[in-house]
């Protein structure tokens, strides 16, 4: 097995951190985080244990990064939608649909995290929860903006609306199948429509 040096990609040109994350994601999804050993990860990635500990420090760090990379992507896209000049209802619709599509496109990452989050240390768990809270608060701010403007009803608290939508998102990994009858965009459109209907003024 070729030796790794920090910063150098493996033979196929893929950077070592990406190889490790890909291998860990596949193994965590197939057999579970707690049943996957560091040795299995490095063998699947074709790297040494030294490379893993250089980039991630521990198996737990890999678990945290599996979800963190998805959350970073979703945060960037939410910030883009929220900061656009579109009407608030269109910004919220786009953001609500996007989190569904990106979750489905990274379903292994999401399902691994929700199955294994309890296995993170208290400190790492706290970090992840803080990052998720930042995302949810940004999303909730769109709902509150529309409520203040009179576009959305105030009959339902913004917190409840956000929990309603993300409850649906978090359950995607339990039922969505790529070979099922709905495409990711179709699921996203349906769930975004449900969210906007919940915020529609009665009789509108």
TrEMBL record:
**DNA-binding region located at which positions?**
37-56
PROSITE patterns documented for this protein = HTH_TETR_1, HTH_TETR_2
Task: Determine if RNA-binding is one of this entry's keywords.
Answer: no
For the HTH tetR-type domain, which residue ranges apply? Answer: 14-74
| Keyword terms | DNA-binding, Repressor, Transcription, Transcription regulation
Database matches in InterPro entries? DNA-bd_HTH_TetR-type_CS, Homeodomain-like_sf, HTH-type_TetR-like_transc_reg, HTH_TetR, KstR2_TetR_C, Tet_transcr_reg_TetR-rel_C_sf
Protein name listed in UniProt: TetR/AcrR family transcriptional regulator
Species in which this protein is naturally found = Streptomyces albidoflavus
């Amino acid at each position: 097995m070729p030796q790794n040096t920090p910063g150098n990609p493996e033979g196929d040109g893929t950077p070592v951190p990406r190889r490790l994350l890909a291998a860990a994601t596949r193994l965590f999804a197939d057999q579970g985080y707690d049943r996957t050993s560091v040795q299995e990860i490095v063998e699947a990635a074709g790297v040494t244990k030294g490379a893993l500990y250089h980039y991630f420090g521990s198996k737990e760090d890999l678990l945290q990064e599996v979800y963190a990379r998805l959350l970073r992507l979703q945060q960037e896209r939410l910030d883009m939608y929220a900061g656009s000049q579109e009407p608030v209802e269109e910004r919220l619709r786009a953001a609500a649909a996007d989190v569904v599509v990106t979750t489905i496109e990274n379903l292994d990452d999401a399902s691994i995290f929700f199955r294994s989050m309890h296995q993170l240390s208290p400190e790492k768990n706290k970090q992840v929860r803080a990052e998720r809270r930042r995302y949810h608060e940004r999303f909730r701010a769109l709902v509150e903006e529309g409520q203040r403007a009179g576009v959305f009803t105030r009959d339902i608290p913004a917190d409840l609306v956000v929990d309603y939508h993300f409850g649906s998102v978090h359950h995607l990994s339990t039922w969505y199948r790529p070979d099922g009858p709905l495409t990711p965009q179709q699921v996203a459109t349906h769930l975004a429509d449900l969210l906007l209907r919940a915020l529609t003024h009665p009789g509108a």
